[in-house]
């Protein structure tokens, strides 16, 4: 009972200004088409990989049959290029008739029959980033369409819109969506475009209208892209940590494990860091053709538990020594004194050489419990080691990789 009281106390400060639609109380998990399949509309020559009803049904099938759904991956998200180039005579959006022959409602019915949820894409401006009709001037109409189609998540981009107007535009669209009869998770790119225009985002306001929000550039399938996002998050981490919590999360973009640009070690590092950052876990890969080591990584229960921790405390970088960084996230359970357990990630940015042993004194990274900790590697959770705050923990980490250790309060 004491633990529940502490948990409520930790969550309440955020709920004062968060979007109150009851959604995304932990970071959303699922699959998103963009990074892997972009705007491929050539279904004649590439029917298995074009943006179409078939693609999203295939991925929904794999989420269920391969065990992702059972671990919390529940959203199948359409991105740009799903619609026709013009609205209908009533100003409504039209799904491409050839690529989505059963419409978005028909696809939603299929996704829901699998016990999953459907996400879709639009833009706050006059056009989407790929040049399809945007929602500017049609916010109420489009919100009604998405509700009618039984969409569960809406990603709203910011191309063809003035960043100076976004403090007005995003709230209008969010309000229109939340006035419908359907619960729709609202994902926005509001701070991304504002920061790019030299405007300081107001995260308190953003959290009032968005469940998740993109802060930085699109992730691309490369280690340098991952490191660029990590650097950006460490630069502004105090602002980001203050804004994150149940119902409202920073979104560093898609998970890339299983594609072409990241080695297994690099993919492991991204997944560990995104878990510590309390990021949405939205994979963008081809689940029909993914090597077992990558699918096992994406289904690692220990890392998913860190990401989905009910305290909703975003982690941050605690130490940096050359190319070695230490990131920590407070997690449950708390001890009788209200002290956190922790997830600790050691990132090795060195690209040359072999594995490196990193020595860490626990109290130097904020693990200041008066009690000791039971620690284990998330890839080998059965082997546990006792450490007290003054003890030095040695962590082995490969180059261009990361290692995650869980430290829970020790019980005799």
From TrEMBL:
Residues 312-400 form the Alpha galactosidase A C-terminal domain. It is found in: Lysosome. GO terms for molecular function: alpha-galactosidase activity. SUPFAM superfamilies: (Trans)glycosidases, Glycosyl hydrolase domain. The gene is GLA. Keywords: Disulfide bond, Glycoprotein, Glycosidase, Hydrolase, Lipid metabolism, Lysosome, Signal. GO terms for biological process: glycolipid catabolic process; glycoside catabolic process; oligosaccharide metabolic process. Homodimer. Residues 1-18 form the signal peptide. One of its GO terms (cellular component) is lysosome. Gene3D superfamilies: Aldolase class I, Golgi alpha-mannosidase II. It comes from Caerostris darwini. Belongs to the glycosyl hydrolase 27 family. This is Alpha-galactosidase. Its EC number is 3.2.1.-. It is an enzyme of class 3 (hydrolase). It comes from the Eukaryota. InterPro entries: Aldolase_TIM, GH, Glyco_hydro_27, Glyco_hydro_27/36_CS, Glyco_hydro_b, Melibiase/NAGA_C.
């Amino acid at each position: 009972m004491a633990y529940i009281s502490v948990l409520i106390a930790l969550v309440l400060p955020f709920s004062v200004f968060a979007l109150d639609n009851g959604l995304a109380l932990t970071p959303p998990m699922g699959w998103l088409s963009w990074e892997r399949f972009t705007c491929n509309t050539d279904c004649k020559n590439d029917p298995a990989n074009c943006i179409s009803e078939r693609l999203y049904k295939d991925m929904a099938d794999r989420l269920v049959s391969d065990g992702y759904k059972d671990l919390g991956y529940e959203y199948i998200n359409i991105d740009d290029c799903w619609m026709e180039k013009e609205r209908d005579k009533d100003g409504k959006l039209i799904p491409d008739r050839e690529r989505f022959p059963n419409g978005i409602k028909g696809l939603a019915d299929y996704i829901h029959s699998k016990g999953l949820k459907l996400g879709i894409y639009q833009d706050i401006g006059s056009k989407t980033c790929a040049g399809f009709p945007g929602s500017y001037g049609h916010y109420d109409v489009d919100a009604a369409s998405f509700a009618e189609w039984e969409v569960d998540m809406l990603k709203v981009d910011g191309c063809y819109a003035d960043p100076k107007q976004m403090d007005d535009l995003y709230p209008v669209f969010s309000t229109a969506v939340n006035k419908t009869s359907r619960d729709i998770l609202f994902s926005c790119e509001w701070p991304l475009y504002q920061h790019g225009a030299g405007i300081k985002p107001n995260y308190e306001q953003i959290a009032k209208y968005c469940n998740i929000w993109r802060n930085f550039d699109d992730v691309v399938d490369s280690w340098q892209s991952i490191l660029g996002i990590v650097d950006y998050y460490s630069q502004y981490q105090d602002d980001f940590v203050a804004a994150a919590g149940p119902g409202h999360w920073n979104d560093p973009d898609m998970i890339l494990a299983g594609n072409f640009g990241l080695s297994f070690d690099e993919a492991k590092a991204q997944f560990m860091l995104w878990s510590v950052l309390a990021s949405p876990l939205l994979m963008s890969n081809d689940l029909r053709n993914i090597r077992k080591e990558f699918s096992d990584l994406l289904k690692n229960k220990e890392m998913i538990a860190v990401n989905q921790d009910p305290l909703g405390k975003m982690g941050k970088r605690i130490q940096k020594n050359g190319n070695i960084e230490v990131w920590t996230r407070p997690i449950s359970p708390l001890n009788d004194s209200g002290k956190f357990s922790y997830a600790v990630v050691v990132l090795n940015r060195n690209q040359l050489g072999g594995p490196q042993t990193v020595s860490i004194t626990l109290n130097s990274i904020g693990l200041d419990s008066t009690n000791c900790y039971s620690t284990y590697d998330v890839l080998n959770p059965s082997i546990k080691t006792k450490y007290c705050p003054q003890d030095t923990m040695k962590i082995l980490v490969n180059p261009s990789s990361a290692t995650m250790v869980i430290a829970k309060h020790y019980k005799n």
